[in-house]
Amino acid sequence: MNNLERIAERLQTLEDIEAIKQTQYDYWRKIDLKLWSELGDCFTSDIQADYGRPDWRVAGRDALVDWLRDNEGGEHYSVSHAGHNPQVRLLSSHEATGFFKLHDWVRIDPAITLRGWGHYTNRFAREDDGCWRISIMHLEYVYKEEHYAYTGSHPPEMTPAMER
């Protein structure tokens, strides 16, 4: 392999790692901004998602987008994901792993605030269109806080996932 080929290979590696990071960041941005019609493009069609609880596991792109919309898309529901410290490792030209730290805030108006931190351990696949997508997603929280404050006799409504 000559120098030009080595440089091209190194450049492709850097471009792939950056594309994988952008896929993860797009996932958070599209949830935060409730871009449900665009969110599915972050995932392979057969994604396996695990949000750290037995009843918070979802298989398949459409099912995952529906589940996220049902649980984070309410009119009084706002969320902010702050992902950082990415560690991406290419396993091949079509497969990679990624570890991303997470701090998030959730506000369910008028009176519920949730926050926590943890990490995502994901697998990514480069599909036939050349785009990197999340194929396996696992979120593990290390710390969570839940605050409820309300007036009157009845607390505000929970999301479907919170009721489980």
Describe what is shown at a glance.
This protein is α+β, with helices and mostly antiparallel strands and 164 residues long.
How large is the radius of gyration? 18 Å
Strand order of the largest sheet: 2-1-6-5-4-3
**Annotation field: number of helices:** 3
Mean pLDDT: 93
**CATH topology description:** Nuclear Transport Factor 2, Chain: A
Please count the beta strands (DSSP E, at least 2 residues each).
6
Report what the structure shows:
The chain has 164 residues and is of the alpha+beta class. It has one domain: Nuclear Transport Factor 2, Chain: A (Roll). Helix content is 28%, strand content 43%. The chain is built from three helices and six strands. A six-stranded mixed β-sheet has the order 2-1-6-5-4-3. It is elongated. The mean pLDDT is 93.
